[in-house]
Specification:
Order of helices and strands: EEHEHEHEEHHEEEHHEEEHEEEEEHEE
Pfam family, one: PAD_porph
Structural class: alpha/beta
Number of helices: 9
Protein name: Agmatine deiminase
Oligomer: single chain
Number of strands: 19
Strand order of the largest sheet: 1-5-6-7
GO molecular function: agmatine deiminase activity; protein-arginine deiminase activity
CATH architecture: 5-stranded Propeller
Keywords: Hydrolase
CATH superfamily: L-arginine/glycine Amidinotransferase, Chain A
Shape: globular
């Protein structure tokens, strides 16, 4: 463990959020008309609470779409990108002696599944443009995506073996060696590994942000499948057993809050899509919750509001996002206070 480094929790004060906007040369080409309004809604919701950094293919085309965002809080930067999953290609911020450091881990398209050459360069290019203020940029030389990490801000990391032990990410490292790298770069003192749970249609190899989320240091919201005939049932039952066995740093059981299991969502080809209410984004004073136009949306809103009583919970229709096998948290990356610099 690196005692000078701390990986802040998502609910800690933020300077802003990054979006990487869809364009005709991304995988969204066939669905741009559907997905752009979803990105605009997310952008508008974020800009009501904090700054918004938008990486885009053409500023002149995207700027008019964001006309209802607070212009003082929005910065558009024209840079090439392969795709739009900012959670995984963006920098991951830690605090070193209380000062922000942006870690530019390598992004290889979720284990070499998709092209990522431009996405992998984005964080370095944003730093070169001065968008991270005085924050230091470091490159650990490790393949790692933000969606695979959940921090309680107090030294505990939650993740999955399926993702971090993927042979196409860091095949030269054992689980123990990966854990040591996480402790060094993120300053965590312990890692909780989930060995079960994954969503059909998920390209990420079971990113934790689709499955289980820290809501405060002692609370974990998680996906629970309550339908025995659903192919997810057994895997998620075993994941629930693992979560029940986990303990906080002081040895107490976590408060576990199950999230509703949404009705199955399919694409035109009949493939099941990874709809999950765990993929919410915590902002300053608000939580953005993905919805899917299914009956369980209302219950998900109610439960999320109970988990975050001091936040405004904003539901956003993310049924277009799951067409490309991700959701709301996947297309965003928050930066703690002291990082984004729009001066």
């Amino acid at each position: 463990m690196n005692h000078s480094v701390r990986f802040p929790a998502e609910w800690e004060p933020q300077s802003g959020v990054q979006l990487t906007f869809p364009h005709k040369n991304s995988d969204w080409a066939a669905d741009l008309a559907q997905v752009i309004p979803c990105f605009v809604r997310i952008a508008e919701a974020i800009s009501q609470h904090e700054s918004l950094l938008v990486v885009c293919d053409k500023v002149a085309e995207v700027a008019p779409l964001l006309a209802h965002c607070d212009p003082a809080r929005v910065r558009l930067v024209e840079l090439p990108s392969n795709d739009t999953w900012a959670r995984d290609h963006s920098g991951i911020t830690v605090l070193e002696e209380g000062k922000p450091v942006v870690l530019d881990f390598m992004f290889n398209g979720w284990g070499l599944k998709f092209a990522a050459d431009a996405d992998n360069l984005l964080t370095g290019r944003l730093h070169a443009h001065g968008l991270f203020g005085e924050a230091t940029l470091r490159r650990p030389g490790l393949v790692l995506e933000g969606g695979s990490l959940e921090s309680d801000g107090q030294g505990t990391l939650l993740t999955t073996t399926e993702c971090l032990l993927s042979p196409n990410r860091n095949p030269h490292l054992s689980q123990q060696e990966i854990e040591q790298e996480l402790k060094h770069w993120l300053g965590v003192s312990r890692v909780l590994w989930l060995e079960h749970g994954s969503l059909e249609g998920d390209d990420t190899d079971a990113h934790i942000d689709t499955l289980a989320r820290f809501c405060d240091p002692t609370t974990i919201a998680y996906v629970r499948c309550d339908q025995p005939d659903d192919p997810h049932y057994e895997s998620f039952r075993r994941m629930e057993d693992e979560l029940q066995a986990f303990r906080t740093a002081d040895g107490k059981p976590y408060r576990l809050v199950p999230l509703p299991w949404p009705d199955a969502v399919y694409d035109k080809a009949g493939q099941r899509l990874p709809a999950t209410y765990a993929n919410f984004l915590i902002l300053n004073e608000a939580v953005l919750l993905p919805l899917y136009n299914v009956p369980q949306d209302a219950e998900a809103l109610r439960i999320t509001q109970e988990i975050f009583p001091d936040h405004e919970v904003v539901g956003i229709d993310c049924s277009p996002l799951v067409l490309q096998h991700g959701s709301l948290h996947c297309v965003t990356m928050q930066y703690p206070t002291g990082v984004l610099n729009f001066k």
